[in-house]
Amino acid sequence: MRQRWSAAALLLVAAAGHCQAFTPAARSTCTCTPASTRAGRSNGLACRALKEPQSEEELRSAIATKNEDLSRMDKDRLQSFAAADEEFLAELLKERSYLSIVTEKAVETVDSLLTAGKGGDANAPATGVKPKVIVLGAGWASHAFLKGIDTDMYDVTVVSPRNFFLMTPMLAASAVGTVEFRSITEPIRNVNLGANYIEATCTAIDSDSQEIVCENVVCEGTSCTIEDFRLPYDHLILAVGATSNTFGIPGVREHCIFMKQVTDADKLRRAIGNCFERANLPTLSDEQKQAVLTFVVVGGGPTGVELTAELRDFIEQDVPRFYPNLVKFVRIKLVEASDRVLMAFDEELQAKALRDLTERSTTLISQGFIKEEMTEVMLNVGVKEITDTTISLSTGETMPYGLCVWAAGNGPLPLVVEAIDQISEQKEKAGWGRGRLVTDDWLRVKGAKGVYAIGDCGVVDQRPLPQTAQVAAQQGSFLARLFSRGYNLNAPVPEKTGGAKALSEQLGLSSDKSGKFAKGFSFMNLGILAYTGGGNALAQVQVDNQRVKGTGAAGFFLWRSVYMSKQVSWRNRILVAIDWTKARLFGRDIVRF
């Protein structure tokens, strides 16, 4: 017998209403309720009856059609949220004072101490099914997110080809043996024991099915195979970082060493030893020895400057003991395309860095090892091409070299480039993102539901921030708090849907005054540091509108203190302290395996 349905079963909500229990099983229970604005004012109710369906299939089709209509209307409402609540949104996103951010960070620290160890069943979702959160990457942003995420609320999985966190600012020191590689790494599994880790590389993101495609290299004996698999997600955190930008210059990728991974630092350490052993062969002329012992660093940012400084220290302090006959042939050249090094620092500190890097080594000169300064900083000089033995410069000069390190900027990883190509809204903002995923103020990737970008692979729309470990760590902590405090991240403005208010929310520091809506991400500049060699360092700390600066021994003390405090475990702190002491007492280890 033909089923008949009451027209009341098809009462649907227009732009201002909600339809509850709209299923064939509840044929006449569709209830239209008024939607309310943030302040609780009724927007009114608009329902209308549709043509009575002739079958259950027709009813289901009508339901699907109207649900799509409602979804589109809901999306339109979300897009118009900023216009309708401009004043409210401006309050959440306005630039906060330095004092306000400092206060918030202090209160967040107190919150973390008060809530430490208070997980358990109380935080578990009511349905018993945890939303799946996948984190791609094992760097600063990922580490901070994992430290803050509540694994009683979420099923967290980390996917990365690297099973450890790396203290990247100390790569330069590890490359010359000032510290050991294992002293600046920490197993990613130690960060959050409630999270699962899978050693694999994500090769693609299927946003339609909300899955990622991964591959893992499995080796048995002398044979290796690649295994592909897929992982579903409810929330995907992209924290994959960036790669080195070669700017399309011929020969860079083939002949240069980069400074992104432990393997890069290890490769550089071996290459330095190779250069000295090659130069020590009796078959080489003096001209050939000087070419082999010419170390070129391209890029005048913190990585390039600190590597130049560490190289200079190694040559001044250790090479005279092991290769006294080769010291006079060593040349270090720092090549920078602009007219300054360390662009983020004030001009007076930039000038101090140049003096520290090129200062005459009185010890080596007095002992007769060298007659002239071995370090040269080449400003306003670009690189046109690199071969296995020479570098062609923009000045027309061709410079022979033995080793070249490329530290000249960041570029996007293939996974990020592919994601940008797949998302229409990201394509539209490609000029702004410049190879990075554009996010809103809550670090949600624009145009991709359930996807977030933190660290070097993302950039907040119209609010660019430097690609530093400091920014990445703060973004990771911020996003973890939004997840762990029960915010609905699918709402236009993340809205608290459950759980007790944290202290910072009660005080209106991390949310609006009601404690219901989350404020956007705000970066707190804790300052910048750079080692410039010979026990000297630069420190520039931002305090509100003032900058506190330190140089020389004072800067060096601050630099080492901060690097020690930023180690992620007491194991790392102890190992780094031991390495510094060993290098000071016994010199750097030049053994190659």
From TrEMBL:
<dbReference type="InterPro" id="IPR045024">
    <property type="entry name" value="NDH-2"/>
</dbReference>
<dbReference type="Pfam" id="PF07992">
    <property type="entry name" value="Pyr_redox_2"/>
</dbReference>
<comment type="similarity">
    <text>Belongs to the NADH dehydrogenase family.</text>
</comment>
<keyword id="KW-0274">FAD</keyword>
<dbReference type="InterPro" id="IPR023753">
    <property type="entry name" value="FAD/NAD-binding_dom"/>
</dbReference>
<dbReference type="GO" id="GO:0003954">
    <property type="term" value="F:NADH dehydrogenase activity"/>
</dbReference>
<keyword id="KW-0520">NAD</keyword>
<feature type="signal peptide">
    <location>
        <begin position="1"/>
        <end position="21"/>
    </location>
</feature>
<protein>
    <submittedName>
        <fullName>NADH dehydrogenase</fullName>
    </submittedName>
</protein>
<dbReference type="GO" id="GO:0005739">
    <property type="term" value="C:mitochondrion"/>
</dbReference>
<feature type="domain" description="External alternative NADH-ubiquinone oxidoreductase-like C-terminal">
    <location>
        <begin position="526"/>
        <end position="589"/>
    </location>
</feature>
<dbReference type="InterPro" id="IPR036188">
    <property type="entry name" value="FAD/NAD-bd_sf"/>
</dbReference>
<dbReference type="Pfam" id="PF22366">
    <property type="entry name" value="NDH2_C"/>
</dbReference>
<keyword id="KW-0732">Signal</keyword>
<keyword id="KW-0560">Oxidoreductase</keyword>
<feature type="domain" description="FAD/NAD(P)-binding">
    <location>
        <begin position="132"/>
        <end position="476"/>
    </location>
</feature>
<keyword id="KW-0285">Flavoprotein</keyword>
<dbReference type="InterPro" id="IPR054585">
    <property type="entry name" value="NDH2-like_C"/>
</dbReference>
